[in-house]
Amino acid sequence: MSCPAVLRLREIRVLYENRTVLDGLDLDVHRGEIVCLAGRNGCGKSTTLRVAAGILDPSSGTAEIEGILRSQNPDHYARQLGFVPQESALYEDLTAVQNLEFFGKLYGIRGYVLDSRISKTLARANLSNRAHDRVRDFSGGMKRRLNISLAMLHEPVVLLLDEPTAGLDAESRFQLYDSLQILRNEGHAILLTTHHLEELDDCCDRIAHLENGQVSFMGDSLSFQRSQRTGRPVLFGQLQSPIPKFLERRIRKRLDDEVELEVIGRRVRISAWNTEEIGRSLALLLSEGVIFESFRSTINQMQPVLEAA
Amino acid sequence: MFSTVLTLAGKDWRLFWSDRRAALLCFLIPIILASAFGMIFDRPDPASDMPKLQLLVAVENETPAYRLLIDDLEQSDRVDIELIPIQDIEERLRERRGGVAVILPEQFDSKVGRPRLAIRYHPLAQLEAQWAEGVMTELIMKRIARESFGPVVGAWINEKPLEVTSEIVAGPRAQFNSYSHSFCGMTLQYLFFWGMESGLMLLRERRQSAWQRLRSAPVSLMAILLGKVLSTATIALLQVMVVFFFGYLVFGITIDGSLWAFIGIALAISLLSASTGLLVAALGGSEARARSISILAILTVSMLGGLWLPSFLLPEWLQKLSHAFPTSWAMKALDGATWQGRSFLESVPHLLVVLSFASVFMIVAFRFFYRSERIQRRGRHD
User: Fold this and answer.
1) Please, are residues B120 and B91 in contact by the beta-carbon 8 Å criterion?
2) Which chain B residue has the Cα nearest residue A100?
3) What's the ipTM?
């Protein structure tokens, strides 16, 4: 990136109790760029986002947006960013407009400007016809759209999204990725966390992989995919319904010790030493009655896997 | 910061009115409670409405001397007697079909020596037992006087030996209105419950994602807390106004003292309600724990502060202890401004004490919130 970074995290250290979660993390996000934080559960993705959002004070290190240090000017810093927590961060008993008015006024937006921003935000969330309905009457997808759009109300430079795709179906996820690309093209800097790395090929510009509290890999999604491929082959699957716990335990017992199985809701991740082992694991899941909606793999051709299955 | 505080308070007002039925109940419940308490203790004409003591009487051996005393008891306008066999007394008292019984023993005769009688009572009827002793003493004394000094003196002594005039001195109307007292007490009690509810809402809000969004916005913790105080106190003030307006319209409750004193105390107790709510949120921990502890605390301080019944009915040590509670001072101030007819200057000491309690509660709550914020910003849970 030739232009200077708008969000700069430097030497961030965060300690929980006696555990080091972030250990001197450095991260830059530029205008017109989407950076995705990746890594295993508990590696510090959400913590990084919370430090960037100013909710968490690091033990040491600095967070700055366009040269404004959070530690020196927290209010000015806060005005430059929009934060979207993982769950719906809305007042459910208020209407969509009342939520937008409330948060807009907190950012000092008033009068005609606020009205026009609210109209624009509702249109962006495709909720103009539900403006005066209470949020608690919205569907999960509508809440999610409003949740994200609300963070854009004050037109921040940096947008931080914690697991924005969690709980969304495939169609809603792709709609979200489209929206993020529009925001990127408008010049916003976007930092997000997600488990759906396999779907971010076209969406993310760079992926920051966290390990041991530091960025262990930083690069575009292609390089990231390549780096993943040099290791074990991985198969990502979308299930028709979550696997019951007893069935998951049974499958794990029958799987080879070298095979890693990760189940998160309706998502499955299988990694093994070779494609044959992946194929055998897939066959085992199918034989236990697990139904896949779709699957994709880091393996160039799926044929060997399917043959093995 | 002022506009931010107003925005935050406005949000709380909108949330309060979002459930209109619940909001309406916030005004109705103190009105219903105050009306019920007022009706229970209402004595429009104390002289004509004097309750009579229900007295069980048992006689061991019926003699002319007993007969005369029973006649006196039957003619008395202060007791209703029922003659029962002596062996039934215990059962009647145990089953609470009568609170107190008098047994006239076999040797009862004023001419023989000092007359004796026995009183039996249920543990809950101690006051009635003392009342019965007083009535019996009076009747026996009169009977002895008549027998000792003859019919002339006896006729004189049958009348009251002195003429008594009674006058209520608190309030220009010189008339205690039980509705005034119960409206003051129940309004005050409900303000504490409203404060608690507001504190619990804050605890709930802090666990929601909207709180994270709020904390990432350019809003200081001070603004958030002041916004909460402002919204809770203004809603509490509206409750005071609505409840007392209802009391004025339906039960004729008036501000017999200084109107400014009433306005001052209404503001002070609204602030006290808000600061109590913040204290609940600051010290309560979890919502369930905070709710249980605050209900216990509110009911205790309400009872000891004289919000249910006048505090002079309490034992002396409890009356002294009640000075440690804000409810006691707030109740005195409200009673003073309404039916006791106190001036503004007379109300100032009570007003200052209530404001002091509100300030101390707020300072403690703010300190705890800042401490909790510091801990949470370091990624730990307090």
Assistant:
1) no
2) B11
3) 0.70
